[in-house]
């Protein structure tokens, strides 16, 4: 008995890990005894265990050695030792991806899965499905179907879960087992129920009707498995979310009913589902909150954690709904699990009154160093929210934040703090100086380049307008001396802004610039030289154009335009206006109307939506002569969500043309659509120049067709127009399973909703709504943060800036007044008179 | 203080994965057992959150550092929910997405621990506890038990009785005469089917 010997050795030794000093080569050497006859099950078992242990430790096995060991292992199927056989299954699963030709064990496994030994059958199914591919799956399909409905729960569960794993690979085969899964779902065993439900949902999730039916059936019949209940709740809440139906539907009632389930897991799942629903009213939340409140005093840490974490989420949107739990949350502040304590405090910060803030902050600072970075970020977010709620508390918060900035922490944590301080500065002008001082101190010793450059940018923007701009110069210039290239360059830009706005500082800034011009890095030198020359001109207009206002174009778009420009040799200079603007909202500083402006520039390096469209359109030969793409609209749905064909429209504007892109999706799996065209009947002077059909539209694969419209030249003000759209296509019926279409088809058409351009303020009741309407209708960017309407005011002025097609700058001022409805007075300025007319005509 | 750039990457990745939750049976991301030095005794990862051994070990080190001193049973680490339990010189962890129902993960952890303690109690009559030495002497039992509890991230079974029954591990073949009466009784209680066969 080898094992007994081993044991004695261990006992005499330090009793340490017998697997500790395993050598892969030695173990593989030992594996040769697999070939001995008769098989010694005990020794073989021990060696298999060692092999799996090594694999588990992350040891790398080469293909050759793994294949060799695998083939030797297959001989062990001759032994009838139960544990040994089970370890063989495990080895097969572990080696499925490493060894070659694993399919040679298929017949042995098939024999075990259909055999008499129940202990073998489940694991054999799982091992078999691990090594099976789509073609082989059809060969064992019959056995799988039988196994799914087997009366032994372990067999049925194994078959269902293995089928689920294979859905990704062989959807079409597994789809045929729906009836068996359906039968398994009514099993008495709770795990079989759960697995069957999961498989059924995965097979049907694209078919909303089938999912609804399934839900109805199971919510009525009542399942025994708590796991299955959790799954049902998730499916129901997803369905509710998609249909955006009211919360009076039977699905919501079902979820609410689960709050009274006797299993805590189900109750929690239901409460969490209700809390996460969008637009939940306080009344609907109340029952969920009260069960979570009960959980707060549970002896189980996991349950307390789950409850307080969920309450924390509720508090973000509905702080008043959680106030009832304040007492229970107070008790959790001293919880030994720091995660729970932190969540409890941050929740209280959101729900508590202004007076309790100081006490809570003190409590939290006592253990902030003990909690993980994730929770520190949670704390910072809570503080950020608090500052917006109680602006007067900003000095306490600022103090706390600056202490946190000094502590150790990862990048995410520091970034959260910096963002929080920046937002406080933006909200409270009186906190600006303290905030900037803390940030200055932080960049003195900051290891994160991104944060340092961000803060320098902010200093450049805010610093020059403070009463004592000179004190920031020292911090900024220190960076030029001490930091890496990127930070130095950012510091130079910040310095330039001080020089441009403060005449008395200009001479000193110029001296500093002079020194920067001798920097070792190109970029820093270039910037310094550039700013130096601009500043020496002492012209306000130059400063504004080259120092304050950065590029507002999309960077990938600029790259593409420049590339295009270099490809075609031309006498014309490159025109910046041909580059698409950044589509994300930014507020630009316009010297004419906006003396004060702060902006949050989102760092967006990925190509924007517009860049993607531009690429798509450029690849179509008919559209190449249209010139650069000016602007793309957001998609508009032209069908209801649940119709046979789903069509949405995107409008692309060019200098003289418009292209309508129709993204169509065919949701019928027994039809193939061909030559799909959306015919448009314009109501006014527009004319359709060209249709580009989508050649083929198979089931559930979206395709696009295009319609090219020429804008009328003679009457530039005729911009509003209604298009009636009809989709025309050739239908070919096809087999839903194989997708093989019939030979002949027939023409058909489908009427879509009209596409129109209208603007109505009459229906708008609040100023906020009006502002959003105007912005989205005109497609222009708001300036000076004028898109934010202060509360409780009856009038508001909205400033918009944009570029009209053809590259004419446009400024719009809209004065809004709230009476019964909203009345508006619009003033438009532009370099081109027709543009003004067009905009006024479109609004009026 | 343990800080490394890998942490940032994985944090961002895990956040991205957790967006847009689709109802699914895939609940468990990993099952780990570490010893009291934080060394891996068993680790099974069910998805690509940590694709390389290096990232896995770094994650395990982070988990161990954050959990081995406290006896609380749940934490949020690198954007993942970790439920854990320690016993003598062993640390058991079950890891899932931060959107996962914490109680489901807890059910898996409890099932794993209870199954192992029943199995070990039977296999080592002198050792009553789940501890490192007993576990190492029954590694095959551990492998088979985890295989019965979680399959590819899906919870296969949550009842420890069922798991022990399905693993059906034989202990050392001690002749019946050498066993005490109580042992036979525990054995027959736990393994009625096996004892009939003896």
Give a quick rundown of the structure.
The complex is a heterodimer of chains A (844) and B (198). By secondary structure, chain A is of the alpha+beta class.
Q: What characteristic shape of chain B results from the CA principal axes? A: globular
The DSSP helix count of chain A reads: 36
pLDDT averaged over residues of chain B: 76
Number of strands of chain A: 15
Keywords (chain B): Cytoplasm, Cytoplasmic vesicle, ER-Golgi transport, Golgi apparatus, Membrane, Protein transport, Transport
Subcellular location (chain B): Cytoplasm; Golgi apparatus membrane; Cytoplasmic vesicle, COPI-coated vesicle membrane
Pfam families (chain B): Clat_adaptor_s
Protein name (chain B): Coatomer subunit zeta
Helices, strands, pairings?
The complex is a heterodimer of chains A (844) and B (198).
Chain A: H1 2-12, H2 24-30, H3 41-56, H4 63-74, H5 82-95, H6 106-114, H7 118-131, H8 134-148, H9 153-167, H10 171-174, H11 178-185, H12 190-204, H13 208-221, H14 226-243, H15 250-258, H16 264-276, H17 282-295, H18 301-317, H19 319-322, H20 326-332, H21 338-351, H22 357-367, H23 373-389, H24 394-406, H25 411-427, H26 432-444, H27 449-462, H28 470-482, H29 485-501, H30 506-516, H31 522-537, H32 540-548, H33 555-567, H34 609-618, E1 631-632, E2 636-637, E3 645-653, E4 657-666, E5 671-682, E6 687-692, E7 694-697, E8 703-710, E9 722-733, E10 746-751, E11 755-756, H35 767-778, E12 781-782, E13 795-804, E14 808-818, E15 822-830, H36 833-843
Helix pairs in contact in A: 2-3, 3-5, 4-5, 5-7, 6-7, 7-9, 8-9, 9-12, 11-12, 12-14, 13-14, 14-15, 14-16, 15-16, 16-17, 16-18, 17-18, 18-21, 20-21, 21-22, 21-23, 23-25, 24-25, 24-26, 25-26, 26-27, 26-28, 27-29, 28-29, 29-30, 29-31, 29-32, 30-31, 31-32
Chain B: H1 5-18, E1 28-35, E2 40-45, H2 53-67, E3 74-77, E4 80-87, E5 90-97, H3 102-123, H4 132-137, H5 139-149, E6 150-151, E7 154-155, H6 160-167, H7 181-190, H8 192-197
Antiparallel strand pairs in B: 1-2, 1-5, 3-4, 4-5, 6-7
Helix pairs in contact in B: 3-5, 3-6, 5-6
